[in-house]
Design brief:
The complex is a heterodimer of chains A (about 160) and B (about 550).
Chain A lengths: L9 H27 L28 E6 L2 E9 L2 E3 L2 E5 L3 E8 L4 E5 L5 E4 L5 E6 L4 E6 L12 E7 L1
Parallel strand pairs in A: 2-5, 4-10
Antiparallel strand pairs in A: 1-2, 2-3, 5-8, 6-7, 6-9, 9-10
Chain B lengths: L9 H32 L15 H33 L6 H23 L17 H31 L7 H16 L1 H15 L8 H34 L7 H14 L16 H35 L17 H24 L4 H4 L4 H30 L6 H28 L18 H30 L30 H24 L12
Helix pairs in contact in B: 1-2, 1-12, 1-14, 2-3, 2-4, 2-5, 2-12, 3-4, 4-5, 4-6, 5-7, 5-8, 6-7, 7-9, 7-12, 8-9, 8-15, 9-10, 10-12, 10-13, 12-13, 12-14, 13-14
The chains are: A alpha+beta (about 160), B mainly alpha (about 550).
Amino acid sequence: MSTTSLHVHPYEKRWIIFSIVLLIVFTTAVAIAAFALGIQVPSPEQRVDPRTVAVDPNSPWSNPGLREIAPGRYEAYILAQTWQFQPREIRVPVGSRVTFYVTSKDVQHTFKIQDTNINMQIVPGQVSKLTVTFKKPGTYPFICSEYCGIGHAGMFGQIIVTP
Amino acid sequence: MTAQTYSLSPKEKSFVSWHLLVAMVALALGTLFGPLQAFQHAGLNLYPFLQPLIKSYYQGLTLHAVLNALVWTTFFITGFLTFNVIYGLKRPLRYPTLNQVGFCLMIIGLVMAAIPILLNKASVLYTFYPPMKAHWAYYVGLTLVVVGSWVEGYGFYFTYAAWRKENPGERTPFIAFASVLTMVLWQIATLGVAVEMLTMLIPWSLGLIETVDPQLARTYFWFTGHPLVYFWLLPAYISWYAMLPKQVGGKMFSYSLARLAFWLFLLLSVPLGFHHQYVDPGVPPGWKFVHAVLTFSVFFPSLLTAFTVSASLEYGARKNGGTGLFRWVLALPWRDPSVAAQLLAGLLFFFGGIGGLANAAYNVNLELHNTTFVPGHFHLTVATGVTLSFMGVSYWLVPYLTGKKLWKPDLARWQAWLWFIGMIIFSNAMHVLGILGAPRRTALGDAPYVPAEWNSRLLQVGIGGGILFIGAILYFAVMIGTAFSKVKVEKEVEVPVAEALQPVSQTPAWLDRWAPWVYAALALIVIAYGPQLYEQIRNISLTSPGFRVW
């Protein structure tokens, strides 16, 4: 019966097909980036207690900083708190592969290293982890980009990649 | 033509007007702080002059966000939807007292939330991420605003049920259908933030519990946070689909596809909140990817909308003598401020949608999360696509409700263009800054790490903000001028409701049946959110005490 069928104008039909193809292309592109090119987003790593994470001697964040685990490979434990990162400065030679483990002892922050793919929400109780290889020498500021209180705009640090 | 005989009673008109009045007062106050933030970015910090009234940039930002994004929208929308339900169904509310109770709850909530914000006891922005802890009245107040809007929604449902009983077998008139659907979407969507408030933030702020789980709170929040966007957007779509075509002398291109688009929004707009949490540590990447795909899929009904609305406008323009592939655009009635505002809003919304796709891309988001790209984006969508459209709607709706002629339509037209131009400058600069890495929600004028290459863009943020502010002043001038004008309309303003090219009776019945769509929407939520909610609640770690950091 004509009254129960959906009437679609021919132009609109073409537009619908175009739209669906467009969205499939986008989804495929994202899938390729995520699964073939290996672009990583943070995933559940570890839970910590934000009340003790900065003082418990067994916690790496009681002594935040850079550890070399193999030649050219580093782990950086960074503690975010109002309104600073500890440590504020990290130096690594060019070509270093650094895995960042960041957590907060108070409110939420964001850890974003400029000109890299490192951008992580820092949620108290959780550890945010991502890895990056610094291929070019230079200074890479890392900044807090989640509102974390009155001193938020001053919360930053830097990674100096030496030649 | 017999369709235009229905009219709202004076009481109903006044009830809707109260919604708009509160909305506009909120917008007026909230908008005051917009240029202050923009100027701060450009190096001109006016906040010290507001002492001791307003303590900081972030208190101003909280006011701007809560009043504009939450209060202006929610009050305007409940008012507009109330109008649509009554006018669309051509029958009074079934239980007007119920709706009045809802409205009163919203007002009480608004006052409760406003006091701590004004006293600088709730400078936590409108996302209120714990463990930043605001005064309890802030959380209770916001909750009451939402509960009040639910109660008004129940009033819509009773009214709609009564209409169905009175009109068996008839298709629901579009504006009423779409308005009830918007309310259903809102009531499903706000479940997330309701749980966050009731199980965590309210007892915590009252001192009944010591600690909360910030990660779980984020998941609850974004369950609501994204469909909230569609709650803002769908009322603008109602106007674009069903009213704007009439205002340009055309018809609705397709009644059925308009309904289909709304159903798809109901179906798809909730189960995709993880795309706001791509860089959260506590959500597995697999689920983030699933929500990315669902986010792209909800773009589909917006693409349908782009076609149907453009086709409806083109139909009207060609009837008015428009020709050419694109030249017909000039034949649209641009001199009508209501039309101009909505056309310009739609145009910028188109670009906002494209930016939204960038945000939604699981990987590109690593570049954009929490940068100024995001506020750049939502100033094109909610602050233009939605807000400028609502302003356009008010250019006919306020004269309809008050019986006063629109005061100085020329100014109203200027308002639309200034908003458009100011927003292009402001938003473009924000997008570019975001790509360069500038953080959002940051008093960038004080930030020590701002490189010189950002400066020219930061200046553009200030210039755009200034132009927007002039646009806002014109809007309030026109509204106040209209309210206090002595010039009455000659006859009641005609409500622009477009007829469809196809007769309404040819709408397939499955596009007017609620149960399957609502159940499907709920099922999709259970599939896309259920496992993670279960995981996160099972592993809840209540380890965060509250902080006051402002």
